[in-house]
Amino acid sequence: MLDNLSLLAGLALLPILLKSLFPYLRDDCCYMWRSLKLGARLTLYKRLKPFYSILDRFLETAKKHPTKTFLHFEGNAYSYSEVDRRSNQVARALQNHAGLQAGAAVALLLGNEPGFVVTWLGLAKLGCSAALLNTNIRAKALLHCFSCCGAKVLIASAEVKDAVEEVLPALIEKGISVYLLADTCSTEGIVPLAQKISQASEQPLSPDQRANVTVKSTALYIYTSGTTGLPKAAIVTQERVWAASFIMAVSGISSDDVMYINLPLYHSAGFLIGVCGSIERGMTFVLRRKFSASQFWEDCRRHDVTVMQYIGETMRYLCNTARVRNEKDHRVKFAIGNGIRTDVWTEFLKRFGDIKVRELYGATEGNIGFINYTSKIGVVGRVNLLHRRFFPYLLIKFDIEKEEAVRNAEGLCIPAAKGETGLLVGAITKISPFNGYAGNQQQTDKKRLSNVLKQGDLYFNSGDLLRIDHQGFVYFQDRVGDTFRWKGENVATAEVGDILTTSHCIYEANAYGVKVEGHEGRIGMAAVTLKEGEEFDCSDVFKQVVNYLPSYARPCFIRVQGSLELTGTFKMKKVKLVEEGFDPSLISDPMYFLDPQRKTYVPLTENIYASISAGAVKL
Questions:
Q1: Which of 492, 554, 597 is nearest to 227 (CA)?
Q2: For residue 17, is it within any domain?
Q3: CA dihedral in degrees (596, 601, 606, 610; nearest 10)?
Q4: In this protein, which residues make up the domain named AMP-dependent synthetase/ligase (predicted)?
Q5: Do 473 and 487 belong together in one domain?
């Protein structure tokens, strides 16, 4: 009898003991179980003939739940069936008037609006791929995007008509047809498309239109900044679309949830995780043109939002809003995103309640990513056997000064010790491929790292420094190379430097990012040398950066030097400049601050520096 009681007591205490010894066991098991189920689903989709794509998932939901709201936008609700019919019209209009055939690539220069999603669905029904262009890019960068993906059709919104008109002669010369999602357009060479769509048939298109689409077919081109100074078109296959869409499912989100998307749809977070993830779950999402801290929680309450997306700046802006009595009065349960600082993370939970923050690490083109599926603050993921089994990766020692992997006498890379910062690399395999960049073999090759653990092996070089602690938690440390991140956007330093040298006074420019207290990422700064006999022309430099760079890429600080320090291979050194920052009390070189109110650069004084450090100046 006593033995039975002891056994029962032991069994009753077992969960407590397991929780004490393995505090994250339940989280690990839930994550691995969900991952296994999703992996099995993807394997099934690959084997189906014809291939079952994310579009088929949308069509299935539209058939089963035709009246369910697919998206909310500016006071209007659009059902699954309504969006389905509208996308049929888009597909037929493009087929009839643009002559689109299966396999063609079409460039979209559209902001966050229903037309973006509807147009993409229409293209998918035709078996076409879509190149998602950043609506901030202009001139040379915009033209470059077409040479990457080979698109011969551009569909733009009325809001960016000026940007299109600026490069229209070059587009016409390249044989690119330009369509505008508007009723009318007086510009010769731009065809208004809205009426043609409205007059087209709503009847479904035959699946034969996309019969040649396979799991390996290119679904999208998503552009990411690189060291070339021009956007790189990451190839996103149908398989990759599915994998990204599963992030919501692996986080425990269901079809009953409501997603809030205010990130740009031309980025993988907003489109792949947000829109495609909503389709995969068969759920409703709320779309907003741009993020608004003041309207954020009101939108969430109005639409019963349960899942929000974020970048680090999103959380900081929300935490900087004035406190109100009802700020925990909402239904948000999950927050999915990346780039949130530990202190902001803690403050966010304190102010807005028990929200499960699912911090991510990954890259559009990368073959390895992490998700923090636990409640631990400050980490981007967790090591588990299942993840490592299917997506082999490791951290290797990296020389920041030389910007290269450290190798041993045999020429192989050296794994970083547990708890040590290292460069993340992911093995390139059939299950975790690296598809590279369209039309840019040189940049594709630069992201491949060979002879890592043995001669002849091949890994994807993430370009990021991470750390894994003794509990198996993964921490993002920093980026290496020429690209830094500010306000959720990647900034290519070579592009910034090229623009700066278009000013009549600047001879050379070395752009980089520096830390600013209280801000995520790194803000733009540049060290420059002046042409002989020239002085720094504040207004001209301001004019160049404003005319040719998006706001997030404009160097906030400029440091004038007598000469730029170079490496033995004539690369501009950045490490020391980054470390020195922009404190005028420590730097004797003249420095300038981009003053948006005066619309010019002004000398960076200690008073301005103090105001920036105190958070009194908006950056």
A1: 492
A2: no
A3: 20
A4: 60-372
A5: no
Q: Tell me, what CATH number does 494's domain have?
A: 3.30.300.30
* Residue 121 CB burial class (10 angstroms; 0-12, 13-18, ≥19): buried
Same domain, 417 and 487: no
Question: Where does the pLDDT of residue 446 fall: very low under 50, low under 70, confident under 90, or very high at 90 and above?
Answer: very high
Spatial distance between the Cα atoms of 224 and 364, rounded to a whole number of angstroms: 8
Distance in angstroms (rounded) separating the CA atoms of residues 578 and 510 = 11
How far apart, in whole angstroms, are the C-alpha atoms of residue 581 and residue 578? 5
DSSP letters spanning 575-611: HHHHHHTT-TTT--S-EEEEETTTTEEEE--HHHHHH
Q: What is the dihedral sign for C-alpha 224, 216, 451, 454? A: positive
Q: Which domain holds residue 104?
A: 42-240+266-274
> For 411-420, what is the mean pLDDT?
95
Based on the fold, state whether residues 95 and 154 are members of the same structural domain: yes
Residues 557 and 472 in one domain: no
- Nearest Cα to Cα of residue 162 among 183, 180, 144: 180
What does the pLDDT read at residue 3? 59
Q: Specify if 192 maps to a domain.
A: yes
* Beta-carbon-side half-sphere exposure of residue 471 (alpha carbons within 13 Å): 12
Q: How far is CA 118 from CA 70, 264, 289, 290, in A?
A: 11, 16, 15, 19
* Orientation angle between helical segments 493-500 and 538-548, nearest 10 degrees: 130
* Ramachandran assignment for 291, one of left (phi > 0), alpha (psi -120 to 50 degrees), beta (any other): beta
DSSP-derived letter for residue 390 is: H
pLDDT class of 568 with cuts at 50, 70, 90:
very low
Q: Which of 195, 188, 192 is nearest to 165 (CA)?
A: 188
Whole-angstrom distance, CA of residue 14 vs CA of residue 265: 47
Helix (H, G, I), strand (E, B), or coil: what is residue 514? strand
In a domain, 530, yes or no: yes
**Is residue 568 domain-shared with residue 428, that is, in the same domain?**
no
Nearest to 262 by CA among 287, 284, 243, 285: 287
d(CA 586, CA 559): 13
Mean pLDDT of 238-264: 96
Task: For residues 448 and 500, state if they share a domain.
Answer: no
With 70 as the cut, is the pLDDT of residue 453 above it? yes
Residue 10 pLDDT level (bands cut at 50, 70, 90): low
Pairing of strands 218-224, 129-132: parallel
Measured distance CA(586)–CA(272) in Å, rounded = 45
Residue 83 within any structural domain of the chain: yes
User: CA 581, CA 513: separation in Å to the nearest integer?
Assistant: 9
**Domain at 447, CATH number:** 2.30.38.10
Q: Which helix (H) or strand (E) holds 118?
A: helix 114-125
Same domain assignment for residues 462 and 573:
no
Tell me the average pLDDT across 366-370: 95
Closest CA to 471 of 16, 25, 15: 25
What stretch of H or E contains 388?
helix 385-390
